[in-house]
Amino acid sequence: MQVEIGSNFWTYSLCEGRERKLWWESEEYSKIFLKSGRNAFKAICNYISADKRKVLFPAYHCGTESEPWYESDWEVEYYPIENNFTVDANKLKQCIIKAKPAVLVIQSYYGFDALNDECNALLQECRNKGIIIIEDITQSILSDIRHQAVDYYIASLRKFFAIPDGGVLISRQPIAIRKIAQGDNNIPLNAMQAYSLKREYFETKNKGIKEEFRAAYVVLNELISVNDNNYAMSDVSLKIWNSFDFTYIAQKRRENYRTLSEGLAKIDYLAITRTFDNDTTVPLFLPVLVKNNTLRQELQAFLAEKDIYCPIIWKKSPRIVDCPKETSAIYERILCFPIDQRYDKEDMLRIFNTVEKWNV
Ligand SMILES: Cc1ncc(COP(=O)(O)O)c(C=O)c1O
After folding, report:
1. Alpha-carbon distance 306 to 210, whole Å?
2. I need a surface site. Which of 59, 73, 243, 271 has the fewest CB within 10 A?
3. Phi, psi (degrees; rounded to nearest 5) at 279
4. pLDDT at 15
5. 138 touches ligand 1 (CB under 6 Å)
6. Which residues are CB-contacts of 38 (< 8 A; sequence separation ≥ 6)?
7. Does residue 18 lie within any of the structural domains?
8. Which band of pLDDT confidence, cut at 50, 70 and 90, is reported for residue 2?
9. Is the beta carbon of 158 within 6 A of some atom in ligand 1?
10. What is the CATH number of the domain that holds 310?
11. What is the mean pLDDT of the chain?
């Protein structure tokens, strides 16, 4: 059992020369490994030439995905995401008719498919009309979800694993992204230092070391945030990427999600919006909607006191004005429970027992 649950990754299980490939790692696709997800977005939004630079984004997304578009003078509009993390095809269609975008961005959430057959048919229609479709596969990178009517796929590689840096831009046809600068070696150096400080803290429980590793993560995030150029992913991270034991990671995440969701389903002020009975879904977190924002903050603080850290993914980007109400409900109520490969059944039961003891 882990003393602390949640927060940044610091440990990983590697296997020599990973054999299991993800679908986009086949020869059918061309890939460019860059420093981060936002760096991959920067590369593609500068690569696409369009008469009218307008992109339609899901209203529920991470601000770092849309920021490069604003910085490159694209106009950004948003379509609603339902509070079970799906897209309503009719609503999307209306937004497309109104906005007439050159580019449409789609994504799935927490490892669960957001798009039904109707949405897929709509994407195909859009593509036939010349709209460029980009899918951010960050949160579904280990799930076996494939949307065919897509021109480019993008992922940040840092959300499921302890990896210093990494993003990828994937396409069927090779694309020429010019001027990719060498990655900053300080990123892997800082990350490795942060991981080992965290390991030391767990062994010694020395609070001074805890402060040191927190400071190291702040520096690391600042280095990752630099997005003024296209930068290559570091060699260290590529090596780590090619050694992950995906089978173990996927299995652990599914087991943990099932254990915890079974428990949390009994808590009446929490709504679990997605469950799965297949082997194709690999969850990122267990996302729940808390009854309201105040309760969410209180629960999050209570859990943090018990060394259980549940992030809010994501806070609404200030760029989104007039957020659709169904999507606002997610931003106001979402709380994410860690279920990743660092933990096992005992940890999940500890989370549930702690929540159960909380007096609302
Ligand atoms: C879905 C998604 N895509 C892209 C990004 C940007 O990735 P990075 O942090 O590697 O720039 C994020 C960041 O949180 C994200 O959540």
Report:
1. 16
2. 73
3. -105, 15
4. 67
5. yes
6. 64, 65, 67, 68, 156, 167, 227
7. no
8. confident
9. yes
10. 3.90.1150.10
11. 94
Position 20: which residue type? R
pLDDT digits (tens, 9 = 90+) for 37-53: 999 999 999 999 999 99
* Cβ-contact 289, 274 below 8 angstroms: no
Question: What pLDDT, on the 0 to 100 scale, is given for residue 278?
Answer: 85
Please check whether residues 177 and 306 belong to one and the same domain: no
Residue 136 lies in a domain: yes
Q: Which domain holds residue 201?
A: 186-225
User: Closest ligand 1 atom to the C-alpha of 167?
Assistant: 10
Q: Which atom of ligand 1 is nearest to the CA of 39?
A: 11
Q: Is 42 in the pocket of ligand 1 (CB under 6 A)?
A: no
Task: List, as one string, the DSSP characters of 263-331.
Answer: HHTT-TTEEE-----SSS---SSEEEEESSHHHHHHHHHHHHHTTB----S-PPPTT--S--HHHHHHH
What are the tens digits of pLDDT across the range 70-127? Answer: 999 999 999 999 999 999 999 999 999 999 999 999 999 999 999 999 999 999 999 9
The CB of 165 under 6 Å from ligand 1? The reply is no
Residue 27 CA, ligand 1 centroid: distance in Å: 25
**What's CA 102's distance to the chain center, in Å?**
24
At 33, the amino acid letter reads: F
Cβ atoms 80, 59 nearer than 8 A: yes
Q: CB count, 10 Å around CB of 235?
A: 12
